[in-house]
Amino acid sequence: MKLKLTCKEAGRLISEGLDRKLSLPQRTALRLHLAICDACTRIHLQFRFLRRAASRYPGPEREGGES
Ligand SMILES: [Zn+2]
Q1: pLDDT tens per residue across span 5-41
Q2: What gap in Å lies between CA 36 and CA 5, rounded to an integer?
Q3: Which of 1, 27, 35, 37 has its CA 20 to 30 A from that of 43?
Q4: What distance in angstroms lies between residue 29's CA and the mean position of ligand 1's atoms?
Q5: Whole-angstrom Cα distance, residue 65 to residue 13?
């Protein structure tokens, strides 16, 4: 795998990384991209934030509310 990612590829790795562990070369390439790309860094942080928020409030399994 090449080490220079486009923003599109980086974005894909970021979202893939939420669901499963990336391989070492993937993580390395992503990290290199994040080091030089502010836009993807922001996306990355946002995804991680959303991910954490989502895991804090798991599932739609709440009583009652059927809207
Ligand atoms: Zn980028």
Answers
A1: 999 999 999 999 988 999 999 999 999 999 999 999 9
A2: 11
A3: 1
A4: 11
A5: 35
